[in-house]
Design brief:
- The chain is mainly β and 618 residues long.
- Among the domains are: 132 residues, YVTN repeat-like/Quinoprotein amine dehydrogenase (Methylamine Dehydrogenase, Chain H, 7 Propeller); 91 residues, Immunoglobulin-like (Sandwich), CATH 2.60.40.10; 91 residues, Immunoglobulin-like (Sandwich); 113 residues, Immunoglobulins (Immunoglobulin-like, Sandwich), CATH 2.60.40.
- It has no helices and 53 strands.
- The strands form 13 sheets. Strands 45, 46, 48, 49, 51, 52 and 53 form a 7-stranded mixed β-sheet that branches.
- The N and C termini lie far apart (90 Å).
């Protein structure tokens, strides 16, 4: 929806109707917000009203100067009534449809063989100014209609054919909505700043004298009264509650609702002007909010007539197992339930992960309570205290957690710090010491490198010697963890062992014309003007480079000449060409290595390949 004109609730079928003047449509949802129908082709549709029998919803189609009726069972349009003016706000009183038009109002009677329309029913009331005309009525108050516009407010007797003025008075120009209480005694307005600050206005329906009203923070912009007299007030509030529920005559709200932020650039979602409606059984309030990007959300506010109590629970942060501890707490609410109210208590621990019911506890006169318990299990122990609520209070619960002491056990894991050839299958064995009931250990492998996640290798009970083993194929440096989750008397324990894996590396020589031995060492022979090529194959890892080291035999010893890094391709290969010396008799050797931390990564242990020996002849 791109706008909201009005919203009404059909209690018989549990449906919510919301009009969209800009989009020219009515959206129909169930009480959970699931869209059941969308009626289109209603340009400028605004005011909505439900017929006395609940069989029809009337909609004011402003652009077409007509009122249409929609069947509440089939969601189909059943009639269209031209009214000779642009209708706005609607109310149904004793079967007739009353509609605002400009700064006046009229009626539509469809009870006879032909519809009867009467315009200009305001009498001598001057509904001045370019402000919206609002109407209000209540099914429990027959023959009464309230109208307001700009600075004027009036109550009419509409039990006969026309509208007979009962009383008129002033109204705050900032009003966005009106309503009539079901006892017929008060007219409520969505704004009243005179003398009271920000308020819902309350006026006597007899003489329109101003009552105390209902204080609301921020900017009041909606008011709706439930059939039981409960008042729902709305406000434009980025940083305060948006909907405020008051018991009749009580200035302190029994409950408030604060909309979340669904993507605003500042503050939370806000209530659309006048977008409040009660379910006829007073079980919930419906509201439409909007964010700064124009996204509208239908919100179902449940248990609006019930106070929202709080239940706080306190317990020692730490305690010893099998030693008595005391849990205290307090149930608070706007009106306290009587002393002796029963609260349920549940204890959750490692032996009762789904919770174990303890004896209920009863509140004192001030809502306080306490109880003692002796926790049989150690570890994290949670005490949850709950109250089911009653006719005037919503349910409440609270919890407190105690860290109950447990003994320490031993857990070891072998092979820490050992280095293995690439691909070596290594068995890691965990050894668990004394425990109470739990003899299960889990063994995890966490290979070095962000691309390989931690993996569970095995979970099981240790054998009679307390051992459990798992095998790791060592292709990377790997941290192996053994985890004991703990039990009722022994604390959890983790042991770690890091095994290190070399890379696989080999170097092939090419461009030589023969091989042979000098002494006992195999050499590759090159012509003095031939460039030797050395192709290294190494275990691949993204960004990895090999280190090439060259040494020359001089004065009876191998002397370093150069060392440089060369990148591996995606197949793990790297070819390096050495420049020919141009003279014979030179003996040299070359080695390819992976250097942890210098070869571009740190996922393997430093590994040196075999020396490749070569010499140059004429």
């Amino acid at each position: 929806m791109s706008s909201v004109g009005d919203m009404v609730v059909d209690g018989t079928h549990q449906r919510v109707y919301v009009s969209d003047p800009t989009g020219g449509k009515i959206v129909v949802t169930d009480y959970n917000g699931t869209v059941k129908a969308t009626l289109t082709g209603l340009s400028g549709v605004s005011g909505l009203a439900v017929s006395d029998d609940g069989g029809q919803v009337y909609a004011a189609v402003t652009t077409g100067d007509r009122i249409v009726s929609v069947d509440t069972t089939t969601y189909t349009q059943t009639a269209s009534y031209p009214v000779g003016a642009a209708p706005g706000d609607l109310e149904v009183v004793d079967g007739r449809v009353w509609f605002a038009h400009d700064t006046d109002f009229g009626s539509l009677d469809v009870s006879g063989p032909e519809p009867v329309v009467r315009l200009a029913q305001r009498g001598d009331v001057n509904f001045w100014g370019a402000y919206g005309m609002f109407l209000a009525a209540d099914p429990a108050v027959p023959g009464t209609l309230v109208a307001g516009n700009g600075g004027a407010l009036a109550v009419y007797d509409v039990s006969a054919d026309g509208a007979a003025l009962r009383v008129k008075g002033d109204m705050d120009t900032a009003v966005k909505q009106l309503d009539l209480t079901p006892d017929g005694k008060q007219v409520l307005t969505s704004w009243d700043s005179a003398g009271y600050g920000y308020h819902l206005g309350a006026y006597s329906a007899t003489d329109l004298s101003r009552g105390a009203g209902y204080p609301i923070e921020a900017y009041p912009n909606a008011v709706r009264v439930a059939p039981d007299g409960t008042v729902a007030g709305g406000s434009f509030s980025w940083y305060d509650p948006d909907v405020h529920i008051h018991r009749p005559g009580d200035p302190v709200p029994v409950r408030e609702y604060d909309f979340p932020n669904t993507g605003n650039s500042s503050g939370a979602d806000t209530l659309v002007d006048g977008a409040l409606a009660w379910a006829p059984d007073s079980s919930r309030v419906f509201a439409v909010s909007v964010n700064t990007y124009g996204t509208h959300t239908l919100r179902t506010l449940t248990d609006p007539t019930k106070e929202l109590p709080t239940l706080k629970v306190s317990a020692p942060a730490k305690s010893e197992r099998a030693k008595k501890l005391t849990v205290t707490g307090k149930l608070t609410s706007k009106t306290l339930p009587p002393a002796g109210t029963a609260l349920t208590v549940t204890r959750t621990d490692v032996e009762s992960p789904k919770g174990k019911a303890l004896a209920s506890v009863r509140t004192k006169a001030d809502g306080g309570f306490s109880f003692a318990d002796t926790p049989p299990a150690g570890g994290k122990v949670t005490y949850k205290v709950s109250w089911a609520g009653d006719a005037a209070h919503a349910p409440a619960s609270g919890a407190a957690t105690v860290e109950v002491s447990r003994k320490a056990t031993s857990l070891t894991l072998n092979n820490n710090g050992k280095v293995y050839a690439y691909g070596k299958k290594v068995t890691f064995t965990a050894h668990l010491g004394t425990t109470y009931k739990n003899r299960t250990v889990s063994i995890y492998a966490d290979p070095f490198g962000a691309d390989k996640p931690r993996k569970l290798l095995r979970t099981g009970k240790v054998n009679s010697k307390g051992n459990l083993s798992a095998t790791v194929t060592m292709t990377r440096d790997t941290t192996v963890s053994a985890v004991f989750a703990g039990d009722a008397r022994y604390a959890s324990k983790t042991a770690k062992s890091t095994g290190y894996a070399k890379v696989r590396v080999s170097t092939a020589v090419s461009k030589h014309y023969k091989t042979g031995k000098i002494g006992s060492t195999a050499y590759h022979y090159f012509r003095k003007n031939t460039d030797p090529v050395f192709t290294t194959t190494m275990t691949y890892y993204k960004g990895r480079a090999q280190r090439v080291q060259v040494q020359v035999w001089y004065a009876g010893a191998w002397r370093d000449t150069a060392a440089e890094y060369f990148a591996l391709n995606t197949k793990g290969k790297s070819a390096v060409r050495l420049e020919a010396p141009g003279e014979s008799g030179i003996r040299a050797r070359l080695r390819s290595s992976y250097i942890n931390g210098s070869s571009g990564d740190s996922v393997n242990s430093t590994t040196h390949g075999a020396w490749r020996y070569f010499t140059f002849t004429k």
